[in-house]
Input
Amino acid sequence: MVLNMDSAWTNRASKAILLVRVLVGWVFVSEGIQKFLFPDALGVGRFVKIGIPWPQVMAPFVGVIEIACGALLFVGLLTRLAAVPLLIDIAVALYSTKIITLAKNGFWSTLHEARTDVSMLLGLIFLLLVGGGAWSLDARFTAKPGRIHG
Output
């Protein structure tokens, strides 16, 4: 009975990790692509507006990082490593677009505007701590022969 409960728990945890990975990966891939599709609003123009240095270089660089690392999270390949640049990305985004404007926009407005960024930050910290889970390419490549993943 204990073995079945452990197996059921592992299966549920694997599904939950998969959902977090897909959610966080999807958001970063989408945002990275949009930096190229809508450069004035979300790419170089946005970086100029919020005061990021070298916006013509940094916006495409950040877009590529978001696409590449988001895709790695999505499939669960190099999950912990891919989370690190995205943690830096989201920390800069929170600081440059939310913390700096806190006094101007007020507490509740800032909380509202920061909800996605904070969710991504927490999702990335979660993935950094637990990895890609059993339903990831990480698990497939590190699996021992004969071992079955839940």
